[in-house]
């Protein structure tokens, strides 16, 4: 079984180096690493060249049309049986690739495998996470996966299609996130067997480590994307209300604790999830 990784990157050579450093020390190396570089300079390509003798590395240059578009470009060149999509600012703990290989090898019916996200201190990052191993469905998909923690059999893309390029970081639309969740929902709705295990994890910084104008802007875009995905996937009104109410309650709790930045962010999350859902298709 061959494992391919597709990395979309843009103007972050130092973070890309950290990711590649984590790949070359894996107990089982990935069989193929495809770097889709949307950078405005050659610095990321130069970083990749440092690893050309230690990884089976293919570098593709692409115009800056967003992460989902870059991943779809990478998919055209994949030769692996299992595919992962690490963010350029994540990094793999030792043994991660071997664990993925083991999960798919022992279960021929497993189509998708996902785990948690931890920051550099071993604390869960990037939102809420389920705490027990489980089969992923269209409701649990919101707390059991994100792009860089999820691995797919190649056949899933033959069955389901590619990522929606109007969703996600850098897409140039109102929808700054959600392409991986939309794809997961589409996959399980079409009968793919997806499993989440919190004992498996990938490292990623916590994006809410500080609350500033950039964080609030990202929160508007990301949560518009969440709302859009709920609309596209046809979720019932009660679930949309639940997804909007949770951060609203959190905002009240944060305010009572004197965490004004977090409270503001949670208010943004609540409002823009509804706004994204109400936006006409």
């Amino acid at each position: 079984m061959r494992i391919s990784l597709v990395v979309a990157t843009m103007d972050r050579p130092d973070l890309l180096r950290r990711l590649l450093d984590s790949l070359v020390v894996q107990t089982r190396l990935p069989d193929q690493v495809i770097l889709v570089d949307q950078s405005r300079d050659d610095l990321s390509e130069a970083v990749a060249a440092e690893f050309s003798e230690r990884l089976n590395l293919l570098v593709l240059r692409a115009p800056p049309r967003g992460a989902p578009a870059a991943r779809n470009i990478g998919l055209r060149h994949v030769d692996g049986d299992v595919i992962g999509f690490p963010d350029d600012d994540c990094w793999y703990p030792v043994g991660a690739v071997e664990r993925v290989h083991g999960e798919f090898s022992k279960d021929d019916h497993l189509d998708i495998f996902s785990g948690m996200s931890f920051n550099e201190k071993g604390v869960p990052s990037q939102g809420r996470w389920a705490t027990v191993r489980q089969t992923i469905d269209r409701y649990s998909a919101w707390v059991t996966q994100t792009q860089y923690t999820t691995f797919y059999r190649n056949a899933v893309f033959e069955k389901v299609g590619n990522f929606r390029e109007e969703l996600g970081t850098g897409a140039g639309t109102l929808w700054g996130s959600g392409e991986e969740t939309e794809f997961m929902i589409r996959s399980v709705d079409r009968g793919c067997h997806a499993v989440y295990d919190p004992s498996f994890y990938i490292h990623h910084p916590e994006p809410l480590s500080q609350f500033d104008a950039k964080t609030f802007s990202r929160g508007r875009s990301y949560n518009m994307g969440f709302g859009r995905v709920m609309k596209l996937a046809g979720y019932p009104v009660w679930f949309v209300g639940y997804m909007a109410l949770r951060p609203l309650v959190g905002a009240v709790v944060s305010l009572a604790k004197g965490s004004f930045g977090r409270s503001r962010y949670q208010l943004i999350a609540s409002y823009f999830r509804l706004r994204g859902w109400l936006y006409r298709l």
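The radius of gyration is 18 Å. Residues 213-232 form the longest helix (20 residues).
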